[in-house]
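Summary for the funding panel

The consortium committed to producing paired sequence-structure records for every protein in the target list. Below we show the first two records in order, beginning with the earlier of the two.
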Amino acid sequence: MQRRFARYAAVLLAAPLVLLGAQSAPQSVSVASKAPSASTVAKARANFIKDMSAHATALGGGAWTSPGAEHVGKAAAADGTVSEFPSYNWSGYADSESRTKTVTYVSGNWTMPSVTCPTAPYQNSDAFLANWVGIDGFNDATVEQLGTGAQCYEGVTYYYVWYEMYPAGTVEEGTTACINDNVNCPEPGDQISASVSVTPGSSGEDNYALKLTDHTRPRESFSTTATCATATCVDSSGEWIIERPAFELPFGAQILPAADFNQTFFTAGDIVSGGKYSNIQGFDDGPVYDMPMIDDSTSYYLDCVDQPSRPGSLLSIADTSACPTATPTPSGGFETSWDAGF
């Protein structure tokens, strides 16, 4: 999955952006009469995997930058303090190492949210939501992450469990019936726990263990292991994120709409860095970033961290009180509400 986008500029982006989706809240679409064919399910899932595997480079200063250049020109926040860091495709928190230590464990819990698909004329456009925890991706080009996902495809909703381990793309897990026919899938309300851990390996590599547990539907649970060169996967950050896909095209950036998820939240967000265990806010080896998601023109918030319910109107970035910097709960939890998907 793609890394987070860098801090927004105060002016419109220099690179052209493809803008998909309506600026008003999409309404629900009845899917009771829709039974997608196996070929349609295959197309939907192929799109999900392709878009989530895009490895988009960071968007900063109005242009696409090289991997790892996301924070050039950004003033470093003090260790252990929370700073707002708006993003085009991420919302949530990132703990960023500012020293020579590395992150060796990240975990979090969440309830899988439901999504509402757009209506005409946008019903055939993909809309997405992914909840995940992971290591790397905030300061660098690599990602080691796993989570749940939702997709609206031709008016039908698909739910996923998945992981991504750099340099490979997104891998869908779950039952054969879910993957082939969109039945026996994870569902909204499922209680999810996920973690990524790192241990030293040999020959300049580290070992990664990614584990997701669906406590409601254990058949959706999975675990996997992988290796990555220590010099490549540098383990410099931990993240607790909701995301919409984004990727680079020859004429600019394409950022896909966030599906209407109403509200979602994380609990028990924990991290181990330099051998020290803490929750999101207890991290003191570097800054803690609160990331609200913003629209492509840097005009509106798409969702705000620690927003208990949707406000009922668009939140202007020009309004300094619209989305104040938030701090996770002492137990490492936070919530966010959908404001718009464009």
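The next record, for a separate protein in the list, is shown here:
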Amino acid sequence: MPTPPNLLNDDGTASMATALMMSHHAFRRDLRRFLAALDQPTLATPQTEALREEWQSFHASLHGHHEAEDHGMFPNMRAQGEGVARVIDGLSADHRRIDPLLERGDQAFGALDGSRAEALAIVQELKTLLDPHLATEEAELIPFIRDAKQFPAPPTDADAEMYAKGFAWAMHGVAPAVLEQVYTMLPEALLSKLPAARSAFAARYERVWGKLPTGAALTPIPDV
């Protein structure tokens, strides 16, 4: 596996590349957590319910991530050349393979009270597909967005709330030094909502996964 890129740029600043890779970090982090939880001998009913709810959040985050790439990031990047276009074609094909897995996951997590085997198999399959997919994005596409150093202002208060929740999810486990730089690129409308969003996510995280090390990752690979 290639050396993972740093979340921050070489000059120590944050960029849209940082934001994208923090999402990658969160996807990897959560897949590890799902695998560990589903592989336990038994699950108490409250944890089963929490896992079911967390899967729905994971599904929405991953699908939304791919939609934003397919309809926002990828079309603009195609202008970089034929080699980049071929990479994007492969990544888009992966997206079409991932979506049915997410749908199957909805059914499997809905049946956790009876058996965890199907949910565990789907999460393992999803991780097997996502690991090289995310690594390819980081190796081939991240360099093109290192210069974008301002997150656009959300058009509405509801959008600011949504983005704050997304950043709170993506920030968990990332090094404080990275987050300090990320804060400098976010608009005030979003920044003002982050403390409450991060507090709510920390409570959600503990409810689902229990008390775990928080980590201090400097790359999109979780360090715990």
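Regarding this second record: The chain has one domain: 16-209. The chain has a mean pLDDT of 95.
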